[in-house]
Sequence to fold (284 residues):
Amino acid sequence: MQKIKSLVEARKEFSTQIKCEEHLTRMRWPDGVICPRCGSKHLIYMQSRRKWQCECRYQFSVTARTVFHKTHIDVPRWMMAVWLMCHSPKGVSSKQIERELGVTYKTAWYMTKRIRKAMIQDRLGVKLSGIVEIDDAVVKSDHGRRWRGGSYVVGMASRDGDIKLAMLNRFRGKEIRRVVAENVEYVQAFYTDGHSAYKKMHELGPHKYVIHQKQWVNGKVHVSFVENAWSLFKRGLIGIYYHVSTKYLQDYLGEFAFRYSHRHEKARLMDLVLAAVKFSDVVT
Ligand SMILES: [Zn+2]
Fold:
């Protein structure tokens, strides 16, 4: 799929329902349309209804079982929302979607939530391997002016550029190891800083660490990949979302990890969100 480089180009490409449907069809079925229910290619296109009928009798539109499945929002707006969320490195707030697309805040919130779910779904089964950097951070959550503390989060990054971010129930070595174990396989070495919480990382695999006060980079041992990801995430959080309640923090972490892990393949981002087949099964 050709890359749409700017907001202006996106607005042009997704200006009408027909254009969006053509774009989606090319993206979803580059080798020809197949039935999302049974996989058959024996289909009849019903021009007036803009739907296909399969030999299994299933009738479907191009949005069937995608992130747009059974919604009343028009496809051009959906496509723009997906484009915006995929191509803003720090993320897009519902407020911004409301303004850009001329929808109500409630609709914008619903759209971002659904698109975020598709992004999270893309990352679900991914495990990091090789050298895995681990670093923790605290995400502050303030409500109004009253300080309510924050949430501990752990970031994991492999040297091929994949990241995973997860919330911790509490800041303990054991809890960190539990979360890390869920997200890695075939680890060559864990790299961390010298914090005592990482003392027993060797239980999961070879462990090397760098003591920040003394040296920023100890040979090849450093955690700067994951630190870079954290700093971008935090800037996004402060600049875009501002208020993220603990309830939704894991979803924002998932959305960010999706964009960051695919940052060198931007042309594929929309495909990955839109091609989330059987999406209707996971959206409630
Ligand atoms: Zn069929």
Q: What stands out?
A: The first strand starts at residue 43 and ends at 46. The two ends are 30 Å apart (CA to CA).
